[in-house]
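User: Hi! I have a protein structure encoded as tokens and I'd like to know what sequence might fold into it. I'm fairly new to this, so please keep things simple.
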């Protein structure tokens, strides 16, 4: 049975890398978009902080390699979130940094990963300006500049997020205040 599962997994992994970029993006969106939309809607109902879906999708795409990263596949870790809790569920990166193992959180589901992501952005002091500008309704291309601390790439990271949003027309998934009020 184990051999069959491994064979199926290897075929699945080979097929992921043998498909076109457009197909990879479609598969990614079919898996991630419904989860992001659900968590977004749940957060709206509970009056929790949320930001435009386009930004969430761009970060998910970038951090997970459009859903092809090992952390996405094996740990439901969409956003490349590191783990510092030795007792919590986690997965080791294959490469070490300065001789130290890097650990990434392991989530039970994609939904749990998205919930943790929104919680991180809504609570960490480093994203205070991001939250402030989001509350003011600043456009996504200005807003992503305040996520530069999410990555070691800093300003380049923010520029890449903006490019992903623009190129993939992710703003089509954003919920306007008028839309969210109408659905309540």
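Assistant: Happy to help. Inverse folding works backwards from shape to sequence: for each of the 184 positions I chose a residue that suits the local structure. Here it is:
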């Amino acid at each position: 049975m184990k051999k069959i599962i491994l064979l199926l997994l290897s075929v699945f992994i080979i097929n992921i890398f043998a498909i076109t970029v457009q197909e990879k993006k479609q598969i990614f969106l079919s898996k991630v978009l419904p989860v992001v939309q659900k968590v977004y809607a749940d957060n709206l109902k509970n009056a929790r902080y949320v930001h435009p879906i386009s930004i969430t999708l761009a970060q998910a795409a970038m951090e997970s390699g459009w859903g092809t990263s090992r952390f996405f596949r094996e740990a439901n870790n969409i956003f490349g979130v590191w783990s510092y809790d030795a007792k919590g569920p986690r997965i080791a990166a294959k490469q070490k940094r300065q001789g130290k193992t890097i650990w990434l959180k392991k989530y039970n589901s994609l939904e749990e990963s998205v919930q943790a992501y929104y919680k991180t952005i809504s609570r960490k002091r480093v994203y205070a300006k991001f939250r402030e500008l989001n509350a003011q309704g600043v456009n996504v291309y200005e807003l992503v500049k305040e996520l530069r601390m999410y990555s070691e790439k800093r300003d380049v990271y923010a520029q890449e997020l903006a490019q992903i949003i623009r190129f993939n027309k992710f703003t089509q998934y954003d919920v306007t205040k008028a839309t969210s009020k109408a659905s309540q």
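A useful reference point when you look it over: Strands lie at 90-97, 100-105. Feel free to ask if any position seems puzzling.
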